[in-house]
Amino acid sequence: MQKEQAAATAAHPKSSPPISIKNISNLEGRMAKVLPCITSPAGKRVLEFIVKHPNCWTHEIARECACANVSDAVMRMRPELDRAGIFLSCYLPERDERLLNHFGEVSFSHRWKAVIQGSF
């Protein structure tokens, strides 16, 4: 087993060690394990905000986390989130639930939530 891990590390020197999530069934616990592995300060803020504010709007995340491109921040931390079993879901609400922009038109702003992989 150790030889296989050493060979995998040699083949992929930038690969990160696994995050131990055994017996951690809640998002907050998994988030606490993965936060030290995320290098982007904006990414950390985005993750914390989405976990603490389920179904939040993209513009709320951008404003509160000082992150101009929320989806890019999420994509950049996806490998770490995958290792922790966290999935950040982005979805477009039904038309009657959408916001109106300042022109009175229906907005295409999305909502975000964090889920444990395999639980949805």
Query: What general outline do the C-alpha atoms trace?
Result: elongated
- What's the CATH class, please? Mainly Alpha
What's the overall average pLDDT, rounded? 85
Number of helices: 6
How far apart, in Å, are the first and last alpha carbons? 32 Å
Summarize the main sheet.
3 strands, antiparallel
Low-pLDDT stretches are: 7-13
Range of strand content:
5-15%
Please give the number of β-strands.
Answer: 3
CATH topology: Arc Repressor Mutant, subunit A
Q: In which order are the strands of the major sheet placed?
A: 1-3-2
What is the compact description of this entry?
It is built from six helices and three strands, in the order αααβαααββ. The two termini are 32 Å apart. The model is unreliable at 7-13 (pLDDT under 50).
Could you explain how this protein is built, in words?
The chain has 120 residues and is an alpha+beta fold. It has one domain (25-116): Arc Repressor Mutant, subunit A, CATH 1.10.10. Helix content is 43%, strand content 12%. The protein is built from six helices and three strands. The chain has helices at 2-11, 27-34, 41-52, 58-65, 70-76, 78-84; strands at residues 56-57, 86-91, 111-116. α2 packs across α6 (78-84), α3 (41-52) crosses α4 (58-65) and α3 packs across α5.
Set out the fold topology.
Elements: H1 2-11, H2 27-34, H3 41-52, E1 56-57, H4 58-65, H5 70-76, H6 78-84, E2 86-91, E3 111-116
Antiparallel strand pairs: 1-3, 2-3
Defining traits:
120 residues, Arc Repressor Mutant, subunit A, 6 helices
